[in-house]
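Hi,

I'm pasting everything inline rather than attaching a file, because the server keeps stripping attachments. The sequence lines come first, and each chain or strand is labelled.
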Amino acid sequence: MRPSNVLRRALLGAALTTSLLAIPALPARAAEPIRIGELNSYKAQPAFLDPYRKGMQLAVKQINEAGGVDGRPLELISRDDGGNPGDAIRVAEELVTREGADIIAGTFLSHVGLAVADFAKRRKVFFLAAEPLTDKLTWADGNRYTFRLRPSTYMQVAMLMPAAIGVKRKRWAIVYPNYEYGQSAAETFKTLLRAAQPDVEFVAEQATPLGKVDAGPVAQALADAKPDAVFNVLFGPDLAKFVREANTRGALEGTFVVSLLSGEPEYLDPLKDEAPVGWVVTGYPWYSITTPEHQAFLTAYVDAYGEPPRLGSIVGYTTIRSIAAGVAKAGGTDTEKLVDAFAGLEVDGPFGPFTYRASDHQATIGAFVGTLALRDGQGVMVAPVYVDGASVLPSDAEVRKLRPAAD
Amino acid sequence: MSLDSLLFQAVNGLASASGLFLVAAGLSVIFGVTRIVNMAHGSFYMLGLYIAVTLAPLLGEHLGGAAGFWGGIAGATLAVALLGAAVERVLLRRLYNAPELYQLLATFALLLIINDAALFLWGPEDILGPRAPGLSGSVELLGRRLPQYDVFLALIGPVVLVGLHLLLTRTRFGRLIRAATQDREMVAALGINEALLFTAVFALGAGIAGFGGALQMAREPASLSLDLSVLGEAFVVVVVGGMGSIKGAYLAAVLVAEVKALCTALGVIEIAGYTFNMSWLTLVAEFLVMAVVLVLRPHGLFGRALAATKAGEAEPPLLPLDRRGRALVLAAILLFAAMPLIGMFFRYAPVLALDMVIAALFAASLHFVMGPGGMASFGHAAYFGLGAYGTAFAATQLGLSTPLAFATGIGTAAAGAALFGWFCVRLEGVYFTMLTLAFAQIVWSIVYQWEDVTGGSNGLFGVWPDWPFDSRAGLYLAALAVALGGLALLRRIVFAPFGLALRAGRDSRLRAEASGIPVARVRWLSFALAGTLCGAAGGLFAFAKGSISPEAISVGRSIDGLVMVLLGGVQSLMGPLLGAGAFTLLQDTVMRETDYWRALLGLVILVLVLLFPFGIAGGLRRVARLRRAGGAR
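And the predicted assembly:
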């Protein structure tokens, strides 16, 4: 083979690779859309994120049909973040560099959320974290470019405290999934309960591998400690396994249980008629919220998808609504202006109006607290009460101490 | 903590042990005969459960609850067994002549496809099945209530054990299976229809897994994360028991389940003034057990040394590239070096190229132990993670400069690889593979829980490099230089006397030792070197992403590495580079294009495996050879 031939082949190969690497970005359009680059762990957490995506799409459709934001339509570019920070950062880079996203939003898993928040700070991109619950996102590792929508772990725990303190039980047991969310929920719970009730005793603590709880032994170990109240942080398949074992063994009979997130339809519905009656939980009772804002959302959602919304739908819908409100207030998508606009931004969502606090960039959207009961062979939250996020958040002065990293 | 409660927990453990045993038994049977490391085994288990929770209510409507429940389990078992047979006939049969481990790649692709298929068929929400009619209550034991179904499960394990034992020892089919486990070629030479035997064995193994999954209907919901979570445990049980030993698998299942139940029962304890929550250990209990067993008994509890099988031809020696190949490599290096310029027009290209460069170094270091070393590591991500965490810790907590932090990371990985390698290289074949996995999981669990140093499950972030590496181009060029240096070093070593010694040890340990090569030491050094270079890839990764989390050490990451090497081709030094590039590009593309990207990725891998059973590099070589042959005509 002749050298010139070799070179030609090499160049051809190079050109091919280049073209593969760099499929050009979308061509510009007449009315420049507002590009929202959204990334989430769709494959890792489908039960929560499928409804979430539907919620987002509904909001985008509604806003665009009403003429967009300042005449500019919203364009949603969704990506899977692979469920890990390494892939998520690459996807975030791709959204910003290739797709020309003005804003990034989304993420579910706490460590992915934190990594993307750090990326946002580094590259000075506006990031609205939709789902991740970790307190660090807005406090210890909070930064200027990151805002968060959902009530944090701390807030969710604090919402349950009135019920936990109210029953005046002495011997508490805790069961939580063994990762940051579970650990920090357990810590917060112990701290808050000890502060309100100094003589409380924590008689058992079970940290179970996420998604792999050995439910029989765990339920038994809790029962053997003879607690008179239990704080549960398990969710998803772990929760279903635990509840079934505890029922069969009578492990929690006569025990008062408070439980995080268990009233969310994503986690409650699969339990069907085995939903643990009497547990006090945080969640989303879409069937008994009668406010006009929520009615309008519910009707539109059911019309669009033929199924009731989950909490994920609310989060997705409200994320897009928040971004639209922020862009409208900032008068465009300039990152710095957007950050300033989000500080103190007021948004109307299906749960009513809420604010993005200027002090820690946390939204004051709340959640519902209620007691589980059975209705028509299905678990429901009865007597749900909406707890405003603002009522359980520490004051601005306290928060300033919690946010050393933010400027 | 009373004796009663410990005893009771031990009984609980027996029920869990049966579940574990059923998945593991099928895996063990399949591996024993076909030598396939079946990555899709957890998927069979998951499918069994999904089919059962679907069938049980359907059948229940017509036949009544009890018949529905047990009919659902029977139907699921049968369906999964049939699927197993189909998989063997349609897919795996085409791969028996490929190098070992290519079946692993194919079954890994299946795992991806089955998971997305389940998502498509059953939707994302967990499905909780009915309780077992007649067994939904509990019995009194030691003043506590034990679910009747747990008693049933605790009994079914030994029943299946005895049944399999009888099948293997008393029937002709069993004799054939045992014969094939010991010497596959001899069985074929004696005129046994090997193809039929393999299909039957695969169906049997898949069926047992499906049965195990279906039985869990009364205890846990069908969910999409089951396949992977069960797979790891199944491997552990099989290896601890000894590959191919059914009674070993049962004993190992009991051992693992009891250790876990004990950790749970002990709860929070105090040792010398420190409080320690024993339940934290449930995260790694099985891998701790496996590490201890393998270090003490290199073939598991009941295992024997595997008879060597050499399917197909012996591996041809590695050759340096010819002139044309060198020109292509040079062009590729120039292209990658020009990436920052290309980045002015296509801003995403350097981002992706950086991922490819890091993946290439990762895959090449794994290939060094797998290809020339002949040691397939399932835990290579451990050194990637150690390098990344070492770098991240030095950069953020110690505040070291970028080069020093990077060096710290490499040092951490080197130390880890030297330590773990010393234990691992004493083992052969699949036991080596599993010990590397055990060490990786132990590292993972420490990183996952050591909040103060590693940031726990959230990991460390804010790991951005200093000047001049803080720009995209600066970091990229530095990473490219490091990677090229590492690759050049690996190539040099492979063709040096040390590399020849390593290859000699792989091809024939006995002969190599007879000619004076200290095989164990050569392997150990090569393992440590591979770990060190992998740590460099990890350090680059931490700087590229600005953060690091335990996923970097997870089994998934190790599997990614294996897939890259196998996809590219084990028998060529260019293989891992091509594989890393192709895999990174592929993943980036499919993740963007479709909702069912995992299935698409699986399909593409399957097609590639079927088209190029020796990897991309092997395929290219064959094309070149055909072309030459055609030119000569």
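Chain A has two domains: 34-152+290-365, 154-287+367-392.

If the labels don't parse on your end, tell me and I'll reformat.
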